[in-house]
Amino acid sequence: MKLLDVKLGQLPTWLAMRDFTPGGIAGALRRGYERYYNKYINVKKGGLGGISMVLAGYVVVSYIWSYSHLKHDRHRKYH
């Protein structure tokens, strides 16, 4: 059953049925990658949409990782 089909009262039982082992998490990541690849990359008439989403995700993740450093630089005075 997909997450969108789960009602709020069924959420704890749905989460209990998920496989949180390393193999289960790797399988979920693999399925997600295959779904993304088949939807945006492996198409007959492809565009820049799929690759631009990957680049935008990379920019957001790298900003989050370096936010603490950037936060301290914001308050420094350069004079």
UniProtKB/TrEMBL annotation:
The chain crosses the membrane at residues 47-67. GO terms for cellular component: mitochondrial inner membrane; proton-transporting ATP synthase complex. Keywords: Acetylation, ATP synthesis, CF(0), Hydrogen ion transport, Ion transport, Membrane, Mitochondrion, Mitochondrion inner membrane, Phosphoprotein, Transmembrane, Transmembrane helix, Transport. Pfam families: WRW. Its main location: mitochondrion. It is found in: Mitochondrion inner membrane. Component of the ATP synthase complex composed at least of ATP5F1A/subunit alpha, ATP5F1B/subunit beta, ATP5MC1/subunit c (homooctomer), MT-ATP6/subunit a, MT-ATP8/subunit 8, ATP5ME/subunit e, ATP5MF/subunit f, ATP5MG/subunit g, ATP5MK/subunit k, ATP5MJ/subunit j, ATP5F1C/subunit gamma, ATP5F1D/subunit delta, ATP5F1E/subunit epsilon, ATP5PF/subunit F6, ATP5PB/subunit b, ATP5PD/subunit d, ATP5PO/subunit OSCP. Subunit f, of the mitochondrial membrane ATP synthase complex (F(1)F(0) ATP synthase or Complex V) that produces ATP from ADP in the presence of a proton gradient across the membrane which is generated by electron transport complexes of the respiratory chain. ATP synthase complex consist of a soluble F(1) head domain - the catalytic core - and a membrane F(1) domain - the membrane proton channel. These two domains are linked by a central stalk rotating inside the F(1) region and a stationary peripheral stalk. Belongs to the ATPase F chain family. This is ATP synthase F(0) complex subunit f, mitochondrial.
